[in-house]
Amino acid sequence: MVRETRADPDTYAVPRQEHQYVVGSQVARFDKIFDRHHDAVQRYCLRRLPWHEVNDVVADVFLVAWRRIEEAPESRELLWLYGIAKNVIRNAHRSRRRLDNLRRRVSAQERRSEPSAEVHVVRSLEERNVLEALASLRLSDQEILRLKCWEQLGNGEIAELLGISPHAVDMRLSRARRQLERALARADTSHPAPASRPVARGGER
Question: Which CATH number fits domain 122-192: 3.30.565.10, 3.40.462.20, 1.10.10.10, 1.20.120.140?
Fold first, then answer.
C-alpha cells in the first residue's frame, strides 16, 4: 500500500519577512499614487457627477486602486485611475437609475435647482455659455471634449481609455468640436449683447 503523504505547507509559504516587504512596498506605492493623483481624480469626478456624490466615488476609486495596486502601470498611473473612475462612475449612474419614480422626481428637482460644481467655479458669462453649449451635446461628445480639454489627455491616451482607435478619436473630436461651435453660435444668436444706452444731447435727459 502506498502511504499518502502531504507536503509541508512551509515548503511553499512566502517567508514572513518577504511578505512584510511586499506589503510594505505596495503601501508605499499606493501612498505615492494617492498623493500624486488624488486632486486630478477628484476634478475628473466633479465634472461628471453632482458634487455631493464626488467624495464617495473618489473613495471607491482609490479602494479599487488599492485592491489592484499590483496592476498599476509604472508610467501611466493617472490614465489607469481614470479608467477605474470611469467604471465606478458608470456603476454610480446605474445605481441612481434603480431608484423609484418618486425618488427620481425629487432628485431631478434638486439637481435643477442646484448649480453644478463647474458653475460654482466659473462665473464669467463667456465661460457659462461654453458650459451650457457643452451640456447640449451628446454625452459621448461631452466626454471626449472633457478628456481632451480638461484632463488634457493626448489622442493616444484617450483611445486607450475609451477602447477605440486613435483615428476614431480624431474623428470624434472633430465632430464634437463642430457641434460645440454650432451650439455656441446658437447661444450667441439667442442671447445677444444688451444694447448700449444712448447718450443724451444737450439738455435732453
Answer: 1.10.10.10
